[in-house]
Amino acid sequence: MPDQPNITYAQLVTLLEVSRKINSQLNLQMLLDEIMDLAIGLLHAEKGLILLRNESKELTVQVARHMDKHSIADVVELSRSIIKQVEKEGKSVLLQNVPDSGDIPSTSSMIRYKIKSVICVPLRTKNKLIGTIYLDTTKSEHFFKKEDLEFLEGFANLAGIAVENAKNYQEVEQLVKERTSDLETAYEELQATQTQLIRSEKMASLGQLVAGVAHEINTPLGSISSNADMFISTFAKLRNRLQSLEDSPDEILKPIKILEDLSQVNKMASERIKKIVGTLKNFARLDEEEFKIVDIHEGIDSTLSLTAHLYRDRIEVVKEYGNLPKINCHPSQLNQVFMNTLVNACQSIKGKGTITIKTRFSGGKIHLQFSDTGVGIAPENLAKIFDPGFTTKGVGVGTGLGLSISYKIIEEHSGKIDVYSKVGKGTTFTVHLPLEGKKQSE
Ligand SMILES: Nc1ncnc2c1ncn2[C@@H]1O[C@H](COP(=O)(O)OP(=O)(O)OP(=O)(O)O)[C@@H](O)[C@H]1O
Ligand SMILES: [Mg+2]
Asked: Domain for residue 436, yes or no?
């Protein structure tokens, strides 16, 4: 028949309060700190230590109060034998007259620090030993009594459950953290795929548009151009014939000359349209889906031609082109970057202003700088401008995709794009590209 615990009513009330206090703490380390302080306070001990068993059943120090390294090592050793004893006999340990402490040998630090009384109880959960609470004092032998041991055992039972709860909570919290991070990663991947999809859709529809326009324009343009040639030669023949007549009639020669000149104008106009169609094709580079070695200046120039309606008569475009080597890149994709950067620059300039395009080759890379004298970007927006969907241009004006797509394209070219901006002064986007832009993996 085991001994009945001799816990007083007052001690029971204390245990109840302790239970309330520690059960509300779910942070394991804070809980262990609290348990330690309560144990020292309730038993008027001088020093204390809490050890917990890790997964490989090794005892590890969790909290130590007023103890140096040497005594901690000793207590860990002592706790090991106590745990063994507890496991074997199911009993806690009370040493009332160190060093003559019976079964448990006194340690060197007990003797050195003149420890007189030691109390050590196991921390358990559901009959599993999870660690120990150790307390000692130099005050007097028999300082800790049998009642103290029983009280501390009761306290340790409550503490064990609270520790188990906190551990479970920590595990759940960790699980939630992992799941949240998995979800975040999945969301980011989804966003990237969506951007990629929108980009290829944008490219595909732009390509189709260009192909359609080029096709539609080319056929009638061919007729206009060859007709203009025909008119020019016919009118020239007619004029020559009339001029060879003895009294060439001026009233007929003059209109023929006018028609001849107009045909020349038509011829020049159709040449211009042909050039524009060529530029459009060059921009979309429909026939060139793969990486290719190209002159970047050509891409910038064709983009400038296509955006001319946005800046003509309003914005001066200054080109400061350096000597650039040709680079291996996806030309139509880079043209998309130039297009978005130039459109953004034009849109940022309200009224008159300047766009400066500087290019340079250094450090084995090409650097393309697009500066505008526009409204600039507010510092709080600078970190967001590359986010898909971020726009300050209002619904229906901007989709907020231009820069995120550009960023992705430059990244795929193993390059970098950065921005410098001052509100009211303007913005500079700089694109850095390696000569061999093609990704290693491709
Ligand atoms: N040169 C610039 N000057 C000032 N603000 C800029 C400039 N370039 C980009 N921004 C800011 O960055 C935001 C995002 O640009 P982004 O090109 O991604 O989208 P958008 O131009 O708003 O829309 P979209 O390009 O899809 O038509 C813009 O709304 C604008 O606030
Ligand atoms: Mg844009």
From this structure: yes
**Residues 167 and 295 reside in one and the same domain:** no
Q: And the tokens for 264?
A: 């020349």
Tell which residue, 364, 366, 370, has the closest CA to residue 418.
Answer: 370
- Pairing status of strand 315-320 against strand 353-362: parallel
- Nearest CA to 5 out of 158, 133, 153 is that of 153
What value does the mean pLDDT take over residues 76-95? 74
| Same domain, residue pair 154 and 17 | yes
In 3-state terms, what secondary structure has residue 21? helix
- 279 ligand 1 Cβ < 6 A: no
The answer to whether residue 182 is domain-embedded is no
Q: Which domain holds residue 385?
A: 288-442
3-class secondary-structure state, position 298: helix
Bond prior to 122 in cis (omega within 30° of 0): no
Rounded distance between C-alpha atoms, residue 120 and residue 196, angstroms: 64
**Alpha-carbon distances of 138 from 73, 105, 113, 228, rounded to whole Å:** 18, 17, 8, 116
- Ligand 2 (ion): which residues have CB within 5 A? 340, 344, 402
pLDDT tens profile 28-67: 999 999 999 999 999 999 999 998 988 888 888 899 998 8
Count of alpha carbons within 13 Å of 128, Cβ hemisphere only?
A: 11
pTM tops 0.70, yes or no: no
Q: Which tens digit of pLDDT belongs to each residue from 265-324?
A: 888 888 878 877 776 766 655 555 577 889 999 999 988 988 888 898 999 999 999 999
Question: Does 1 have pLDDT greater than 50?
Answer: no
Per-residue pLDDT at 2: 47
- Ligand 2 centroid to residue 339 C-alpha, Å: 9
The verdict on residue 193 lying in a domain is no
Q: Is the pLDDT of residue 441 over 50?
A: no
Q: Is the CB of 195 under 6 A from ligand 1?
A: no
In a domain, 296, yes or no: yes
The enclosing domain of 109 has a CATH number of 3.30.450.40
Domain count, the chain: 2
